[in-house]
Amino acid sequence: MAALPLVxxxxxxxxASAQYLTFLLGADLFAIGILAVKEIIEYNGxxxxxxxxxxxxxxxxxxxxxxxxxxxxxxxxRAAGAxxxxxxxxxxxxxxxxxxFVIGVLVDAVQAVLDIGAADIEPAPSFGAQVRxxxxxxxxxxxxxxxxxxxxxHVVSGSEIAALAAAQGAPPxxxx
Length: 176
Hints:
This protein is mainly β. 10% of the residues lie in helices and 43% in strands. The strands form two sheets. A seven-stranded mixed β-sheet has the order 1-9-2-3-12-11-10.
């Protein structure tokens, strides 16, 4: 997979900025803080596991370790996207109370790494958003377009995924 372009618009004077990896789910642009991203790999399929919630596609073998893969579209209660040659897995290392864990997130296409200044981030709306507000850190404004900034801890939280599975009538998943 080709290297990601680094786009760094100058931050507003006096405002701190942070880097985000942007990606597409359908036509919508999302972002995750770059500090959680370990690597990006091409999608080559997953091994399905029985009894997992619909949003867990399965596991991949990442250098000898079994890494669960979360279908982000399904996790955000959207229709699963078609798998294409641009589909990829963003491998994240996420801090949790039980310790850090590694999880893959399936997305339609990775875009770029962007610096987004604090002045260009608005709080997540409590209504009318395409994604539940508790899953968002905020909404960034980049080049006249909105970027939904995901809160990785909430999106990949084992307890949230278990609650989602229970609501769908699936058996409870093993902790991630």
